[in-house]
Design a protein that fits this description.
281 residues, mainly alpha, 2 strands
Length: 281
């Protein structure tokens, strides 16, 4: 296959995949699927339903493209070295969110307030998890694997990061720091995906950020109906606290993201060195 034909075919697959997902979102938004009277009195179950449909659709589209179009020539792995990758996801996720919150607490801009009693807490967490699974499969699933195979890791990271940032279009209203935070977060999680060879660790890291950051501490923004256990307040310079964007607009998050990217680059280099030494033996 010539380069021009390869570019055209790859571009067509990318457009087809994204167009299929957009069509899916439109279908899920139809009144017949979006609202059910028996769920309307339970906000947690309704949110779970709203997250479940896009996730199932994303998995379906991924399966169609991987199995029917690619004939399994491209792999999207979820479970690979589950114990190791679960541990890595927990370590990186807790270090990422925990390090930021601890720093903000120590410098006095983050304060814990009263706590709230949340009904159906497990369902809220499950809804947040389904949303993360949908995002990771959409961005770092088929699209990432296709671009990595057809080109290289750098191209895959750049293009999927552009897509991931576009999905979070609201950050452009929050300022340049919030945009840079989304970009660097995507790069970090993409490198983690490459290092572990599966989506398991990225899903865990992303879920810790969204689930713990929003539902537990209320310092990460998800859909407005998500509750939070602690009424945390951020006071001080908006460059540090993030202002209306909460910590996702904070320059501290940007610094942490860059540190994690450097760590991932170091781990990937060491991984490549080990693979090279084994190959030349």
């Amino acid at each position: 296959m010539t380069n021009s034909k390869k570019h055209l075919v790859t571009f067509g697959k990318i457009i087809g995949f994204i167009a299929s997902w957009i069509l899916l979102v439109a279908i899920c938004s139809l009144p017949a699927l979006d609202q059910f009277s028996f769920l309307s009195n339970n906000a947690a179950l309704l949110r779970l339903w709203w997250e479940l449909l896009p996730m199932l659709g994303t998995l379906l589209i991924t399966g169609v493209f991987v199995w029917l179009i690619e004939k399994n020539r491209i792999k999207v792995s979820l479970i690979k070295n589950p114990l190791r990758n679960t541990l890595l996801g927990l370590i990186f996720g807790c270090a990422w969110l925990g390090g930021i919150l601890l720093f903000l607490f120590l410098i006095g801009v983050l304060r814990l307030g009263d706590n709230n009693a949340i009904s159906y807490l497990a369902i809220w967490f499950l809804a947040a998890l389904l949303n993360v699974i949908m995002q990771e499969y959409l961005v770092r699933g088929y699209l990432f694997s296709l671009l990595k195979k057809q080109y290289n890791t750098v191209v895959a990271v750049i293009i999927t990061t552009i897509f991931f940032t576009a999905m979070h279009g609201g950050v452009f209203e929050a300022g340049i720091v919030a945009v840079l935070n989304v970009i660097t977060m995507s790069v970090f999680v993409s490198l983690l995906c490459v290092y572990t060879g599966s989506l398991l660790a990225p899903i865990i890291v992303h879920f810790i950020w969204n689930g713990i950051g929003c539902i537990v501490f209320g310092v990460v923004s998800l859909a407005e109906d998500y509750p939070n256990i602690w009424n945390c307040t951020l006071t001080g310079n908006s460059l540090i606290t993030g202002g209306p964007a909460k910590i996702e607009g904070s320059i501290i998050v940007l610094f942490m993201n860059i540190i994690l990217i450097i760590v991932m680059e170091f781990l990937l280099k060491r991984q490549r060195d080990v693979a090279y030494r084994r190959a030349v033996k």
